Amino acid sequence: MQPDFNFNKNVNKELHHKKNCIIMLDSKMEDALNQQVNAELWSGYLYLSMSYDMDNKGYEGMASWFALQAKEEFEHATRFMKFIGEMDGRVTLMPVKEVRQEWLSVADAFEDTLKHEKVVTGRIHQLMGMAIELKDYATQSMLKWFIDEQVEEEDAARKILEKLKRIENSPGGLYALDKQLGKRANGED
Ligand code: MG
After folding, report:
1. pLDDT digits (tens, 9 = 90+) for 53-106
2. Does residue 13 register a pLDDT over 50?
3. How many angstroms separate the alpha carbon of residue 14 from the centre of ligand 1?
């Protein structure tokens, strides 16, 4: 029996129609996701800058913790870019703004980290709000991972800050914390 080519053609046509009508990113969502790519790259710059500042201050463990943190941010940017591409969108790479170069102390750097992560959480929640408003279920599903990730990011920064407060800048305490943070493995908080 001959296959029904006509039928297949219609199915393809229908799939194509579906792709354009249902899976395509709304341009407002696409712009917001591209802004988020830039924000994630900026976060990577921020933590790299903290890493080198910690290294200059003689805290090698913290320098390595922030270097891993930076690597994670670049991975977040990649995750957003990959998603935009998969959704047939256009990735727009914008200039990354300058970041701070120096922090007063280790506690100052971690306070800045927690403050920054709270801003990021707010941004991710705004993106989710937009995806819900647009009934964009694919973007909502992708963002779910980031919502969970932000809970972990804030928790990790808060726990380190609590430890820093407990040791109150005692050199011995800072030395021990530096050693502990230096043990952070790839993929851990
Ligand atoms: Mg991030």
Report:
1. 999 999 999 999 999 999 999 999 999 999 999 999 999 999 999 999 999 999
2. no
3. 37
Domain 26-181: give its CATH architecture. Answer: Up-down Bundle (1.20)
Residues 182 and 60: beta-carbon distance below 8 Å? yes
The CA 146 to ligand 1 mean position distance, Å, reads: 8
CA of 170 to the centre of ligand 1 (A): 31
Residues having C-beta closer than 5 Å to ion ligand 1:
73, 76
pLDDT band (50, 70, 90) for residue 24: confident
Match 């919502």 to its residue by tokens: 147
Ligand 1 centre and the CA of 19: distance in Å? 29
